[in-house]
Known about the structure:
four-stranded antiparallel sheet, elongated
Amino acid sequence: RRRREQITITLNWKLFYVRFYRDHATAALIWNYKTREELKEHLDAELRAFNVDKELGGKFEISWNHSEFEVHYDSLLDEVKIGDYYLRLLLEEDDHVSRIHKPYEFFNDIYHRFLLTTNSKMRCMCLQAMGIVYRRYHEDIGTFNDTRYLVHMLDKCTDKQERDRTLEFMHALLKNKKNCKLLIDAGGIKVLIDLVTLSHLHTSRATTPFQSMFLEDGGMVHEEREWYYGNKEKERFGPYSLREMAEFWEDGVISERTKCWAQGLDGWRPLRSIAQLKWNLPCSSGNPLFNESEMAVLILNMLIDICAYYPNREDDGGIIRPIPRPKRILSESCLPHLVQLLLTFDPLIVEKVAILLDNIMADNPTLPRLYQSGVFYFILMYTGSNVRPIATFLKNTHLRQAFRQNDSPDVAANSILAPLLPSAMIYFLENHGPEKFSEIFLGEFDTPEAIWMSEMRRTMIQKIALHLGDFKPRLMCNTRALYQYMPIPQICYEPLERELFCSIYYLRNLCNEDKFPEWVIDNPVKLLKDCLEAWKKEVEKKGSDINAGDALETLGLTMEDNKLPVDNIIRKAYFKLAHKYHPDKNPDGRDMFEAVNKAYEFLMSKNTEFQGGPSPIHINLILRTQSILFKRYGEVLQPYKYAGYPMLIKTIRTETEDTGLFSNPHAILPSACELCYHTIANSALNAEELRRDGGLEILASSLDKCSTVVSFESTPESLECRVATFIIRCFSESAAFEAAREKISEMKYVVENICRLMLRKHLPLLTDACIDAVYNLSIDYLLQTQLLQCGVLWSLLPHLFTYDYTLEEGGVEVSEDTNQQAMSNKVAKQAIYSLARLGGFMSDTPENPAVRSVVSALLTPYIGNLMVDPDARHILKLLNSNIENPYFIWDASTRAELLSYLDDQCTNRFLDQGIDIFSNIQSKDATLSQTFTFSAHENELVLGDIFVRVYNNQPSFPLRDASKFCQDLLNFLGDQAQYLHSYLSMSNGNMANEVKPDYELRMKHSYMALEGLKNCMQHNPSNEAMCCGYFKLLFALLKMNNENIQLLALEVLVIVTRNQECVSSIAEAKVMGCMLVMIMLLPSSRSSVLQVLHALVSNTTIIKEVLVKGALIYLLHLFCNSTSPNIREETALLFSKMISDKLVGPKVKLVLLKFLPSLFVEALSDSCETAIHMFDINHENPELVWTDDGREKLCSTVQKMMTLHFKEQLKDADVDWRLPTDFTVKYSDMAGELGGGGGFLRHFIKQPSWSVRKPRDFLSALFDALLQHTNGGDTAETIAAALIALLSSQPILSEQVPPLGHIPKLLQVISQHPAAMGRIGLQVLVPLSDNESCVKTLAASPTSIPAVMKGMQKGHDAIGVGAEICHRAFTKNQPSLVAQAVQAGLVTYLLDLLNDNLSRTPSAAKAQVVIALKAMQMDVLNGGKVVAMLDQSTVWSSYKDQKHDLFLEDTKTAGFLTGPVGAAGYLTAGPNNSHSDTPPPLNTSLNEGRRNRPNNL
């Protein structure tokens, strides 16, 4: 660069120096301490030489020849470097460690070196390197066109290492499909097959622990001789073993050109072209990289990769034909050698072969003949555990072999594996797939679908090895040997000798419900059909038609010393004849071939199955399997009619007739009876089929035979117990059909046996079956009768008391199979249902009165009623508990009495009477309810099945029919009351001692019944109407001389009077006199009496009656004299309700007004509390004057009248109360008081702001009174003062005056009556002139102003009043009124008054006149005229501009009334005086207490 020229450095020299001082050993770079030293030495030498040249150059500029400078690293001279890469390191490093640039050129460089070198080691390295590079960069390199040469080189190669490296390189070349085609075209597959067969020679491979001795070479005592050779003279020598051929090579007898032959070669071939001899004799050199097994795995992987390029089907699923060439080659001449690789038992080889065969044989037309290669023998002999590929291969091929002429519907029969594997394993493979099959094949399984274990696998391998004989040793001598297929006899497995396989299940395991309780059966219908078929075959099975002598004769053998020949001799004889007569070789020898096979199978199987007839064990399994099917899959099988009844009935008959039935360990009868039951239980139509086939009679005969054997020593597992249980269940299920019931009723001993066996409580399953049979048989009345005659009740009822409700309520899960009490509970519940059906308590069975009466007698009517649609758990809990409720009294004593009675009955019927079991006991049972009673129930009052005493203690207990119970109680009370009244009237109170207990008992029961009636009404509100028609009875009870009964009757009436229907019924009964006397007879129950009356007075008829009977005088007595605030309040409420009646209320009110001030009566209608409060305190106000004297007079008057009437009514309840016509209570406090409209005027004037209750009525009354006193006087003055006070305090009332028409009358009074009355009228008119409505009325009357003017002229004090009226009226904007005034000359009259002297017209009056005139000026229409008239007056000018307010009073002219101001409302608003803080003394009488009260409370 130029001097001072700046150059940017783009290279990463820092990284260079970091890497420079590190060691590197990769295919692209070797750099270490030595290379760094060599570089340093070369640079130092070069620098020294350059410095010398510079010194020698003198003045010339010397440049360094850098282009030719090169460093030679001596330490790397031994490294083979091709291109830029060191071959050794490339081979040693892992894949993709070094990135190769230009891999195509580098690959060609390596291949070029490979072709040029003759060094074997170098060639191997090149082959290895080419494999590595091609494997990494096959896409960049592309097709290797010299693949054909490589195949040829492999075939001619004699160096073992070069052979193995070539195979590695060829495997890498298969990354490209075109290379694969080149390999196939060059015949590479056959070359590979020749090499892969060498794996048979690998004797040092590890063996699996499972490998049997039959597969070990060490077990062979001789070498197979397979090889032949020929000399130049074409002489043939042999056969020799492989060891002998090696000796011949060493001796020079044979050479690489010697032609040799062995079985499996296609002709005589030179030794060097026979792979086994070439690579195992000393003619080959080098050390192999792989042993024979490893080389075989490599080749198999290559073949798998080749086949992967050629699928058997197109993407759309179409099968390719002809099949792809590589698979065609492999499936023809190469297939036997591939299959025989399985005999190496090497895990990897076997796995790869299985995968390859599965690929080759898919959609291959040669697949049906694959079995002839022996592949199924070889593959099942494999002892390893990596069997998944094997299972996949078997799954895809075992059913597609053409080894038999006709296909069978049985999968196992169509499988080539049938002689080798148990049928269950074949079905498992087909149904569950390879994965599950592999699991079973390697494991230890003993299930209904698979019985397979390692010992069975060992047996299979031994049998196959024995069948193959010496073929395995032959392969070790001649790897090209070919197997000659021969069928193998059926392998018999010892664990399966006693098993019965049907469909896809081992029936022994399937029937083992303890071990496999819920094993899933995928197709129960098919299994049932297969079971029926197997049953038929088993029944028809006969002994074998061949014996050992015939079998030996067929094979050409003889027996020595009565012993069979050893297996090897039998096998060799069989092979010889099988080869001779095989249909493929001898079409005419099929019959002989089958005979040979049969003889061989017989001699090799040693199975006892061939020796006997039907097996009872197998038949038992078949029957039990069918029972399991019907139990678990009843819904699936229900539509199907059972087809096995003929065989089943025959089996039951045969077993029943067997004299040694109960000693036979393999008895079939229990299983047959169980199956019979399950078929019927599954589909009721099967019962009809069984009946038509005569099965019921056979079952009855078996039951009769077994029932005699069942005893207290029998166990649930005993034969007789099991048979009886299932037969009884058969009859139970058959009862659904009428024809079957008729047949059962004809066989009476069936019912007898059921009743007898029901007593065996120690056999819960049997008793459960018997009780269930009773349940189903009870649908027929005839069978009900037979059951009853056989004493079924005595057998059935004891089971009810074995129930333990704590077990079910305890929350612990229990099973009836393992818990005895759980089973007892189940039996007890079923007994309840059977009892309900037997008695016809259920709707689907005929009613049986005899059973019902027994149930009611023994279990109480309450339990009998619960039997209708029974809740078994509830009933049983009641029967096994100590209960006391209105329906049920039950305890340990009642249970003990009942069980003792039942035990006596059972003893009498089943033990004492013997066979006389059909005696007519129905009538005796029917009368049982009259003879049997519990001691705990003897003294109880029972009405309508209800214990009245208990009900009174538990009144909230829900009743089934409360209405009926009320009816029963009322009827009972009617009977008892009639008796008690009659007895009392006859004895006149003197009761004889002998009848007194009866009387007391009846009185006690009456009291209980009445209390029960009260409780029933109280807790069942809808039943009050049941008392309608019984009220004379209930009211009559009030007259009984028993306070308790009277109180209860009263409580009943309190309840029933809530019902309006009852109230109407009482009104019709006319019994209120009895009720009224109770007010005084029962002081403690007055509240109840008043409550009843309050409910009754809602009826007008009753109000009329009680009014006549004196109710008001009793109530007034309570209101006035009672010391109980509550009683007085209830009385006031009763008054209020009676007054409110539209028809009788006014009469009641009139009667009360004769006793009480009107304000009290009004208050009673509105507020009872207010009325009481008013009564208790003193009043002196505008509306009421009430003092202690008036109160005392009222109380004493009422008490005297009530006492007199009570005495009369006590004698005669129907006596009437009559009040004198002129009767009224006169109060001295109110004498002389002027009243009007409900108020006292004197007091009102004192309290003008008192808010009266009815102001409008008060107003109208005052006007009427004023207009009646037109002559004036003090009365008129008082009325006017009250009226003015009312209008002033309540101005709004002025609105009510015009409608009442009082204004015209008032104007008339002003104008026409004396001066005093006119003045009074004007004063009344003042507050009215402030109301617009009143002013409108004045304006409408033409005499208004003239009347006012006349009133003003009646006195000086009237002038101001009249002027104020005019002033107020003229301000209301009524032009007509002003016009009337102008026309009447009011202006002139008023001006004259102003002109008058002060003595005649007071100043205040003149001020009012001025204001009135000014108001007239303001009128819109007539103001001008008024002004004109005023302007003409000389007087007006003196008044118009001045204010005269000082002459006016602050109060209104009419506001002269004074007095305290009260609050609105009733008299509660008087002065708020304090109440007494201490109560009066307890011994103070009512009147004294009232006197001592503060006057104003």
